[in-house]
């Protein structure tokens, strides 16, 4: 199946509300480089999406939400890694969050605090104050494909644009090859 991307600013119905709002707040030149494509929501998971739409795994980026804990304090952060890699949650992410323990945040909590659907989480439109950690491989991708906040769409944007989004921290060694 082919993807039929449109400028994200022209297809707001394909974006979760927080994502739509975040794109609207971007510099117009930056927002113009972000596109969105409708997909079958049943194929939103990375492997199924890549197979069905003929997308290489190394062009697909995953955004995972991590909870870092130190005592009673919990810090939520997003990690963006290519589908060919795995985030180093137990070492790199844990240290960056100054946490004793780090793990994937519970699905219900992630959905509730982001206003996005599970399987469509994206670094655009996350709650203010969250750290957005992006693996250093992501800015090198000519066109990264990531969630749109809903399962029925994907965002397409140059990796360098994703890395230049407000609040993004590019981290060497955030992920390792699978």
Automatic annotation (TrEMBL):
Residue ranges of domain YbaK/aminoacyl-tRNA synthetase-associated in the record: 42-162
MF terms (GO), sorted A to Z: aminoacyl-tRNA deacylase activity
InterPro entries assigned to the protein according to its UniProt record, in alphabetical order: YbaK/aa-tRNA-synt-asso_dom_sf, YbaK/aa-tRNA-synth-assoc-dom
Protein name, per record: YbaK/aminoacyl-tRNA synthetase-associated domain-containing protein
Species in which this protein is naturally found: Leucobacter massiliensis
């Amino acid at each position: 199946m082919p993807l039929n991307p449109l400028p994200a600013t022209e297809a707001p119905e394909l974006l979760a509300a927080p994502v739509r709002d975040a794109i609207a707040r971007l510099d117009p030149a930056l927002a113009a480089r972000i596109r969105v494509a409708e997909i079958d929501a049943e194929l939103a998971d990375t492997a199924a999406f890549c197979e069905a739409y003929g997308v290489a795994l190394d062009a697909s980026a995953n955004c995972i939400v991590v909870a870092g804990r130190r005592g009673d304090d919990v810090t939520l952060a997003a990690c963006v890694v290519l589908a060919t890699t795995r985030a180093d949650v137990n070492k790199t992410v844990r240290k960056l969050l100054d946490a004793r323990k780090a793990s994937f945040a519970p699905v219900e909590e992630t959905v509730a605090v982001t206003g996005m659907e599970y399987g469509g989480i994206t670094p655009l439109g996350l709650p203010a104050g969250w750290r957005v950690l992006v693996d250093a491989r992501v800015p090198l991708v000519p066109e990264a494909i990531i969630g749109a906040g809903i399962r029925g769409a994907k965002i397409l944007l140059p990796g360098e644009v994703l890395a230049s989004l407000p609040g993004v921290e590019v981290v060497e060694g955030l992920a390792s090859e699978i």
